[in-house]
């Protein structure tokens, strides 16, 4: 039997499945995160166990003064997905888009035991001065890839209407750190990077790099 | 005489007794002829008329009972056979120059076939039933 057939049977029986790593993806607001489904096959084809964190289609609840309430719902979902992947002792990474980046950052702040091997952010609304250094020193993250676009209109607006948000998805994180890779693109807007091609070419090598 | 691991299967699946007995007979017979034989769900399905899903499930359960040990075969996507085999995924490189077709292949889950080898305990069981 091929590995994709073997893995669900093995997991069901409590036998360690055939994966090289795990990845948790978290979508943004105003969407159900079609990009998560688009990259699912690519990740699985590369032996990366993929957990999709889905907190439903949210619009108003992401805005002030409701932001905190929504983060209190999403952060535990991220932790639960992480705990689930830890059953198989896999190095676990997180991929966040837009509000998903704020959710991952918040989950890291609230859970010092949450430890990601790699974190990928695109359309990030985390503040530019997000304390990655603290996270790194605590062992909560080993490497970060932030992909941004200067002309991302949603990131520009986010900091005015979402509590705790910033514009790292437009201008990158600051100060620069050796463990943070930043890639700027001119025309990818807010959501265009979540494709199987980009996942195969950039995200998979980043997640699997030793 | 029954093999211990198959007794465990029978207790877990009392409604699959015929299927388990057929697979047990086949594996027992195969290992007596060749103790190093690879146990492959497709070959079992071809020889015994059983639902392939049942066969796959039972073989993975036998792995869970430590009767079988998984072995991975990286198949050439051009259909030229096995290009590399290993006991764990980590032993496979990300890319390989295929010994079968000469082209370079990227490791892809769809090209990795999972088969099984008998564990030492299963082989001991098989030899014991042979003696009796």
Any overview of this molecule?
The complex is a heterodimer of chains A (210) and B (132). The radius of gyration of chain A is 16 Å and the shape is globular. Chain A is built from eight helices and six strands; from the N terminus they run H-E-H-E-H-E-H-E-H-E-H-H-E-H. Chain A starts with a helix and ends with a helix. Chain A has one domain: Rossmann fold. In chain A, helix 2 crosses helix 8 (196-208) and helix 3 (67-86) crosses helix 4. Chain A has helices spanning 3-12, 34-45, 67-86, 99-110, 132-137, 153-161, 168-171, 196-208, and strands spanning 21-26, 48-53, 92-97, 116-122, 141-149, 180-185. The model of chain A has no long low-confidence stretch (mean pLDDT 92). A six-stranded parallel sheet of chain A has the order 2-1-3-4-5-6, with helices on both faces. Chain A has 210 residues and is an alpha/beta fold. Chain B is an alpha+beta fold and 132 residues long. Chain B has one domain (4-131): Orthogonal Bundle (Arc Repressor Mutant, subunit A). Helix content of chain B is 44%, strand content 20%. Chain B has five helices and five strands. Chain B has helices at residues 4-12, 17-33, 41-47, 52-64, 120-131, and strands at residues 68-75, 82-86, 95-97, 104-106, 112-118. In chain B, strands 2-1-5 form a three-stranded antiparallel sheet. In chain B, strands 3-4 form a two-stranded antiparallel ribbon. In chain B, a hairpin with a 6-residue loop joins strand 1 (68-75) and strand 2. In chain B, helix 3 (41-47) crosses helix 4. The longest helix of chain B is centred in the first third of the chain and has 17 residues, at 17-33. The A-B interface holds A 1-6, 9-10, 13-15, 18-20, 44-47, 208 and B 41-42, 56-57, 59-61, 63-64, 70, 72, 89-90, 94, 107-114.
Number of helices of chain B: 5
| Order of adjacent strands in the largest pleated sheet of chain A | 2-1-3-4-5-6
How large, in whole angstroms, is the Cα Rg of chain B?
16 Å
Q: Total domains of chain A, how many?
A: 1
Order of helices and strands of chain B: HHHHEEEEEH
CATH class of chain A reads Alpha Beta
Shape of chain A: globular
Order of strands across the biggest sheet of chain B? 2-1-5
Mean pLDDT of chain B: 92
Termini separation of chain A (Å)?
A: 29 Å
- The helicity of chain A comes to 40-55%
Stretches with pLDDT under 50, minimum 5 residues of chain B: none
Average pLDDT rating of chain A = 92
CATH superfamily annotation of chain A: Alpha/Beta hydrolase fold, catalytic domain
Q: What is the CATH topology descriptor of chain B?
A: Arc Repressor Mutant, subunit A
Structural class of chain B: alpha+beta
Uncertain residue ranges of chain A: none
| Helix content bin of chain B | 40-55%
Specify the oligomeric state: heterodimer
Q: State the shape of chain B.
A: elongated
């Amino acid at each position: 039997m091929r590995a994709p057939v073997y893995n669900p049977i093995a997991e069901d029986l409590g036998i360690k499945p055939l994966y090289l790593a795990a990845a948790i993806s978290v979508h943004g607001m105003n969407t159900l995160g079609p990009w998560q489904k688009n990259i699912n096959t690519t990740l699985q084809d590369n032996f990366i166990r993929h957990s999709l964190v889905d907190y439903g289609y949210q619009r108003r609840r992401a805005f002030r003064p409701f932001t905190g309430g929504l983060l209190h719902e999403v952060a535990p979902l991220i932790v639960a997905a992480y705990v689930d992947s830890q059953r198989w002792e896999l190095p676990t990474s997180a991929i966040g888009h837009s509000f998903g980046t704020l959710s991952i950052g918040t989950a890291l702040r609230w859970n010092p035991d949450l430890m990601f091997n790699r974190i990928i952010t695109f359309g990030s609304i985390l503040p530019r001065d997000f304390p990655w250094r603290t996270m790194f020193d605590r062992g909560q993250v080993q490497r970060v890839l932030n992909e941004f676009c200067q002309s991302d209109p949603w990131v520009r607006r986010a900091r005015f209407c979402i509590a705790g948000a910033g514009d790292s998805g437009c201008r990158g994180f600051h100060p620069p750190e050796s463990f943070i890779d930043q890639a700027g693109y001119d025309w990818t807007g807010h959501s265009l990077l979540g494709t199987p091609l980009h996942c195969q070419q950039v995200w998979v090598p980043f997640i699997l790099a030793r | 005489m029954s093999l211990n691991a198959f007794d465990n299967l029978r207790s877990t699946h009392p409604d699959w007794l015929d299927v388990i007995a057929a697979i047990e007979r086949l594996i027992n017979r195969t290992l007596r002829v060749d103790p190093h034989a690879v146990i492959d769900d497709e070959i079992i399905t071809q020889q015994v008329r059983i639902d392939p899903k049942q066969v796959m499930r039972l073989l993975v359960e036998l792995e869970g009972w430590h009767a079988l040990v998984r072995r991975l075969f990286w198949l050439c996507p051009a259909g030229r056979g096995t290009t590399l085999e290993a006991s764990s995924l980590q032993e496979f490189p990300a890319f390989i120059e295929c010994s079968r077709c000469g082209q370079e292949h990227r490791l892809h889950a769809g090209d990795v076939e999972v088969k099984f080898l008998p564990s030492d305990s299963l082989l001991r069981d098989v030899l014991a039933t042979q003696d009796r």
